[in-house]
Amino acid sequence: MSLKGLSDQQVVEQIEAQEARLVFDSFSISQAHEIGLRLLELGRQRTLPIAIDVTRNGQCLFHSALEGATLDNAQWVQRKMRVVQRFSHSSLYMGALCRVKGVSLEEKYLLPLNEFAAHGGAFPVTVRGAGVIGSVTVSGLPQIDDHELVVSVLEQQLATTQA
Predict the structure, then answer these.
(1) How far apart are CA 60 and CA 64, in angstroms?
(2) Quick check: is 141 in a domain?
């Protein structure tokens, strides 16, 4: 189900369901590479100007940029990823939640805009029994498209590895 056209409250509810469903039994470097390569291949097929990052416990396990991605996209990746690290929720979820509450992430949590971005594209890597241990992030598309690209690849990865 696409998040496009939904209210912020509906987006929050849909992402809560995604985050509850997209949980790994374990998360290896090989899985990080597979996810990164799936995103890279989709980006190439669709000619998407994206930057891609997969991080586990603060360690970058995969990072790439496709034609058209800029230094700004790499900086957006970092800012979105920090939101996941701080709140253990997707960056789109945190942006929608703040809008529902009528306050920005910066106002509510006193976080600097140049370090945190509550815009779609970073999704938590959650391991059963361990919680959020990393993130998968894409930047370069409209925020819902960034988010949905990541979610689609995580769904594929989980269907393959935990079938």
Answers:
(1) 11
(2) yes
pTM check: above 0.85:
yes
Contacts of 126 (CB under 8 A, 6+ apart): 19, 22, 23, 24, 132, 133
- Give yes or no for a contact between 151 and 44, defined as CB atoms under 8 angstroms apart: no
Give the CATH number for residue 117.
3.30.450.150
* pLDDT tens track for 85-101: 999 999 999 999 999 99
- Assigned domain for 65 exists: yes
Whether 44 is in a domain gets the answer yes
Residue 134 lies in a domain: yes
Q: Is 133 exposed, middle or buried (0-12, 13-18, 19+ CB in 10 A)?
A: middle
Do the Cβ atoms of 27 and 134 come closer than 8 Å?
A: yes
| Cross-strand partners of 55 | 60, 135
